[in-house]
Amino acid sequence: MKSKRISKTEAVTSLTPYSVPVRIGPSDYVPFLGDKKICYIRLDGKKFGDMPIRVEVKLSVEDSPNSAGMVIDLIRAVKLALDRGISGPLISISSYAFKHPPTQVTDHVARQWVEEFIQGKRER
Fold it and tell me: Which of 52, 81, 86, 116 is the most buried (most CB within 10 A)?
């Protein structure tokens, strides 16, 4: 569990342009939740007059449909690469789908790369 926490934390902080304390915790299987995953997000900051502000959010999702959609996107990208005779790492879809891709970029850049790959404007 310790290595999973480190991996998830590094995936989030690698895209943060500034240093902030972050704690990402892995989750165990909780029988009564079934396929549901729950995420709590808390942001602390300061507003006008140096007054503290806190935003707390609870995100609850079904896990399988989220994973299934990503796997389908990966399979489609690999099929495109095979049809085009491309071998080796697919940087665009890896940057979009994985926590630790060969090239780490922001989500909007990764999505743009995937779109360019699909259109044939980007080799990998």
Answer: 81
Where helices occur in 27-87 by DSSP H, the ranges are 63-84
pLDDT digits (tens, 9 = 90+) for 11-67: 778 777 777 777 777 667 778 888 888 888 888 889 999 999 999 999 998 878 777
What are the residue boundaries of the structural domains of the chain, listed by start?
2-62, 64-119
DSSP, collapsed to helix, strand or coil, labels residue 53 as strand
pTM above 0.90, yes or no: no
Tens-digit pLDDT profile for residues 13-22: 877 777 777 7
Backbone angles phi, psi at 57, to 5 degrees: -130, 140
Count of helix runs (H) and strand runs (E) in the chain: 4, 2
